[in-house]
TrEMBL record:
This is Fic/DOC family protein. The keyword Signal does not apply. Residues 248-418 form the Fido domain. It comes from Pseudovibrio denitrificans. ATP binds at V289, P290, D291, H292, D339, G340, N341, G342, R343, L344, H345, R346. It comes from the Bacteria.
Length: 508
């Protein structure tokens, strides 16, 4: 049973409204059915002014937008104005049960919104309602692609609905369209990357690719605060270079985890068998103080199947960067392993991009290096959803400093708003395409030119010429007094001057 729908309020779930207004759409349904779900980034309400107010996470509509104070009225308002929130809808359907949904469909059996609601109920819950198939009416899309990015379309004759959801009931995060994402897509980054690679001689491109690969591997460990031995960095780099070539499976994830971990004496390999969290422990009580709580161990098989199925099928029908964001950030929220989740999360970015041929053959975009440069923004993106999720998870501490989740949470990892994650990843990819790839190629070209001109001036072993270059590079093109008095004391003043001039010419 639901409560009566709210009247005008000034505060909703500890969130101040810009003006007193009556909750509408998802906010009204959350309140009426006591839904314990992460709140959408933007909520709706009806104000008494004849101007829409968009402020502080609220959109205050005018009185003429007010829906009927019924389940159908608020569901229709939500689908029309707010897009799909699948986790919220599933909790609503579980809370209200089948009868109210059957009743509203019978009241308008051919209505475009009632058919969408009916389809979503059966798709999310996997249960068929006691309703006859629709025999007339034009087909409608399950997801409004003017608001959110959809996938391929498969017709459902029973509802006369086209299922264009970009996932399955096991895993289907959604991304809202906005001006930033449209601008990223219009930047034609894939085309720019191919052009940049084509403009570089093959031997130089191979060296550029090798450097970018090493840079990404190092950075992925650095994000986790690790400084592993060089052979581990190289081994993980080789795995990244092969991303996209092997289809994802549980066995493939386990193979990658073994590469990431290296020494498994103190780490359980394979899917977690206990709860998990990211955070710290209270110094006195050793109680967990979580920033993020991972999926329950009993939900991992189902969630992993959802992500693997998404990677095999639905990812191919989404923009490659959007697909990479959904897959990679979905994985890191689930956190299926005891250790190695962060690096595998970033591996999945490479996998999704390479699978679609987004990057030039043999070239790995150093996305991890850009993430490391923008680490604060990266953490904000991760923590935004984690923080909204924390209050919806019940847990108890274990005797050895871990925690056990005691309520149902799987849907919070299956369905979440991945818009901010897609924006962040697109910005990182844009940086690698427009800056890192051409800059590194230019650097190597200039380096080669420097070495050629240096060899015409003076004979020097490769080891020493590399050291000389490093000193110049570290000191803005000037050879320091220390270097001139030690490693390169044999150079004359005139030779030193001419070497610095060569460097300036090559790297101006």
């Amino acid at each position: 049973m639901s409560k009566p729908f709210s009247q005008a309020v000034t505060v909703f779930h500890e969130s101040w409204l810009p003006v007193p207004a009556t909750p509408a759409g998802y906010s009204a349904l959350i309140d009426a059915y006591d839904l314990r779900v992460p709140l959408p980034h933007k909520l709706s309400a009806i104000g008494d002014r004849h101007k829409i107010i968009d402020q502080d996470g609220w959109r205050i509509f005018t009185p003429r937008h007010a829906p009927e104070a019924t389940l159908l009225g608020h569901l229709t308002f939500a689908l029309k104005n707010e897009g799909l929130d699948l986790a919220l809808l599933k909790r609503l359907f579980l809370a209200c049960g089948p009868e109210p949904i059957e009743e509203l469909v019978r009241s308008r059996p051919t209505g475009r919104y009632t058919r969408r609601i009916w389809f979503l109920y059966e798709w999310l819950l996997g249960e068929q309602l006691d309703l006859p198939d629709v025999e007339t009416g034009t087909y409608v899309d399950a997801l409004d692609t003017d608001k959110q990015f959809g996938g391929s379309s498969v017709s459902s004759p029973r509802h006369r609905v086209r299922n264009n959801l970009p996932g399955t009931p096991l895993f289907c995060p959604l991304i809202f369209r906005n001006k930033d994402l449209e601008a990223f897509q219009q930047a034609k980054l894939q085309e720019k990357a191919m052009d940049a690679a084509a403009s570089v001689p093959k031997d130089l491109l191979a060296r550029t690719a090798a450097f970018l690969l090493l840079k990404d591997s190092k950075s992925s460990f650095a994000i986790e605060g690790e400084r592993p031995a060089h052979d581990r960095i190289q081994r993980w780099g080789r795995a990244i270079a092969e991303a996209g070539k092997t289809p994802l499976s549980i066995d493939e994830f386990l193979r990658l985890q073994r590469i990431v971990i290296g020494d498994d004496r103190f780490v359980h390999l394979g899917l977690r068998e206990e709860g998990g969290f990211v955070g710290m422990h209270d110094r006195e009580t050793r109680m967990p103080v979580p920033d993020h709580i991972s999926a329950k161990p009993e939900d991992l098989r189902s969630l992993m199947k959802g992500m693997i199925d998404f990677a095999h099928d639905h990812a191919k029908h989404l923009d490659p960067v959007l697909a990479a964001a959904v897959l990679a950030f979905g994985f890191v929220y689930v956190h299926p392993f005891e250790d190695g989740n962060g690096r595998l999360h970033r591996y999945l970015i490479h996998h999704a991009l390479a699978q679609r041929g987004f990057n030039p053959p043999g070239v790995v975009f150093p996305v991890s290096a850009v993430i490391l440069e923008r680490i604060d923004t990266y953490r904000q993106v991760l923590e935004d959803y984690s923080a909204r999720l924390l209050g919806k998870i019940d847990w108890q501490p274990t005797s050895h400093g871990n925690l056990t989740v005691t309520n149902e949470t799987a849907d919070f990892y299956r369905f979440f708003d991945a818009t901010a994650h897609a924006e962040f990843l697109y910005a990182c990819v844009k940086r690698t395409v427009e800056h890192d790839l051409p800059e590194e190629a230019r650097f190597l070209q200039n380096h080669d030119r420097f070495q050629r001109e240096l060899s015409q001036l003076i004979d020097m072993p490769a080891r020493l010429s590399d050291l000389l270059f490093r000193f110049l590079n570290q000191n803005n093109g000037k050879l320091s007094h220390r270097a001139r008095s030690k490693e390169f004391e044999a150079l004359t003043e005139e030779e030193t001057k001419r070497i610095e001039e060569i460097y300036e010419r090559c790297f101006e």
